[in-house]
Amino acid sequence: MKVLATYNIKGGVGKTATAVNLAHVAAAHGNRVLVWDLDPQGAATFYFRVKPKVKGGGKAIVRGSLELGDAIKATDFDNLDLVPADFSYRHLDLWLDDAKKPLVRIRRALRQVSEEYDYVFLDCPPSISLTSESVFRAADALLVPTIPTTLSLRTYEQLDRFVEENPDMVRELKILGFFSMVDRHKRLHRRFMNDLRAAHPELLEATIPNSTDIERMGVHREPVGAYGKGSKPARAYEALWSEIQTRL
Amino acid sequence: MSKMRRYEVTAAGDFASVLAVLTDHLGLRLLSLDEGQRSWLDTPAGTLERAETTLEFRRPSGDGTPTLTWAAEGRVLVHDPCVSSTPPVQSSELPDSPAFARLATLVDGGELVAGPTVNSQIAVLACLDDEEKTTARIIFDRSETIDGITLPMLLEVLPLRGYEDEASALEKKLKRSVALSASVTPMRELAQQGASEGRGAGSGEDGAALVPTMSAASAWRAVFQDLSDAITKSFSGVLSGNDPEDLHAFRVAVRRIRTILQDGDDVVDPESRDRFRHEYRWLGDVTTPTRDADVHLIEFPELAATLPPSRREELVPFKGILERHRADCHAAMTVELRSMRRAEFGTAWLSFLADDDAWTGCGDLADEPVLRIVLRRVEKANRQLVKNGRKISKKSPAIALHELRKEGKRLRYLLECFSPLFNEKALATILRPLRDVQDDLGEFQDTEVQANALLELAGELEGADDHSALMAIGGVIEQLGVRGAEARASFSKTFGQFDNRKVQRAFDQLEPRKKKR
Question: DSSP string of B282-337?
Fold first, then answer.
């Protein structure tokens, strides 16, 4: 089982869209996939039409008194399950802080379902906190959507530095950055992409376009590949998944 | 994991009317409605069935692309278009995806064979909650065999993980709206049974629909068809191994086909005749060890009864050995019967029977009236039996009796398979003593084979140092020897009842008398 976390310190960069769409692509390819929505906003949960509530509470999962498997809900798609968000996840940092060995809590919970899934996508809230550090410990790779703008460039470099400065915490963690919400008509986007690629050649080649098709996920409440099969963004997520697999 | 629940729809009405109740009355959302042909695939050893999964090759009506669906308990593990328009016969031909790679591992990279094929209408429906999220899927399946046998309509409720309560509520509503009865039999099994029933109208005992004036080729073809039906009818029973009679019926039909093929020179296409004789011989051979093991077990109580009551208990450990041996034989036979060879030969045989061209101008005597040809072959078989039967003496080796038994079978099968052509009274006059001769020869051979087999299996007891059981087996084998000797001693008298003027004259009266106007 590979654990992939969609992560960025900055919000609004397409983390949830990445988690939901890549999970959908991976499942459509015949993989057994789980999405764990760790963001109290519950956008991934919303996209899958699942009610944002964990029976027994999210805290119980973190504490280990509730099996992760008992919180899983099947989505409408074959081989694709979800641990829904719970608004109480806003206290996740506090729960972890209270717990013994907080950094391994998420990893331990995931170990319970390691035989059931090929890939787990963790949809993380934006920030660098105890929650994100616990995610870094659990994940094999961080998928970092990055908008080609100055602020995004700053946050990507912040994360890169953090990883470099904390080798014990992140261990074998791979950082897989890629450009998201790209508007190729904008000269600024093209320039930033060129600059950033020059400075960070490890960035993935595949890019996700800025597209109303992706925005419509909120209307359809399903992954873009479900209602826009063959569309440009659907193809972009396919290409991204294909490239990610070569890097894992 | 939430368990799928299966029901048979017992409500009156057709597929469309029940579907209307599901959508209009119960408000279920129709996700897909597919029509077409589907076949279940498995390894020759039935690996997928044992793993409680199914692999379906679906060919939609019209120009749609065929698909392969691998599912467990109704849940789709993978569903992909199939590049080829025919089912894959090797796991290496499965589509390239992680799930199919898992499937290839499960079947150990081996071959796949097609099981039953049905024409289906399959509706997939969803039960939605107030967020329009699916909480349960319903698969409504109406299928009929390719022979047109309608199978029971099945309705399967698949609760989605985490929505078990909602699925239970749906089931209650379903039961109130549609007449259902719980069922444990999946459609694959129903299809297998249906195929057997559909094709199994002929028993091979009653004879095909024959008239004396029809061409020899048409008659031979009709007899083969009737015997093939008997094979198909017993096939699923042979695989399940629950009733030894199924295997017995299967083997009788196989032997009869071999005999009729043997006597089909100048009537059946020579190349096909050679090929199928060879394959049917193989089919007979692979089933022999299991039939022998069945006979050991069937006759065991009777043989044990020949021992003094105080010694019968000593045979209990040996019965266990017989049962294990029978299970081993059956498992080995099942692998052969599910093999690619069996599937290909079975398909080729049915295609041969269905192909009009294969039966046109296929031999010098093909267009001759059947009665004339069959009478000639009966006469020849009888002449040979009488000639060799008269040679049997008390000193004849066992092999001579075994050969005579085969000749007797040939004559008997010719008479029985073409029985509708003959004068009933003359036929009965011949068959009664002929069967007695066969019974004697059969008893002689079977007791010898059985004694040898029991002696060999008794070797397994020696390791257990179980002398009392060994002694008891010795007693049983002795009894078999006595029975064999009795059969041999009575042969001369029994054969004399066949080889006499009255019976031999009946051969001249086999042609039915023309009705007086």
Answer: HHHHHHHHHHHHHHHHHHHHHHHTTS-HHHHGGGHHHHHHHHHHHHHHHHHHHHHH
> What does the alpha-carbon distance between residue B122 and residue B56 come to, in Å, rounded to a whole number?
13
Inform me whether the C-beta atom of residue B134 falls under 8 Å from chain A C-beta atoms.
yes
List of chain A residues whose C-beta atoms are within 8 Å of the C-beta of residue B131: 49-51
- Whichever domain contains A143, its CATH number is 3.40.50.300
pTM above 0.90, yes or no: no
Q: Where residue B161 sits, what CATH number does that domain have?
A: 2.40.320.10
Question: Best interface-test mutation with A: which of B131, B132, B163 has the largest number of A CBs within 10 A?
Answer: B131
pLDDT digits (tens, 9 = 90+) for B360-405: 888 889 888 999 999 999 999 999 999 999 998 888 888 898 999 9
Give how many domains chain B has, as a whole number. 2
Domain range enclosing B50: 5-194
Residue A128 CA to chain centroid, in angstroms?
14
* Phi, psi angle pair for A176, to nearest 5°: -115, 90
B206 pLDDT higher than 60: no
Q: Does A229 touch chain B (CB under 8 A)?
A: no
3-state secondary structure B43-86: CCCCHHHHCCEEEEEEEECCCCCCEEEEEECCEEEEEEECCCCC
Residues B100, B92: Cα–Cα separation, whole Å: 10
Distance from CA of A182 to the nearest CA of B (A): 30
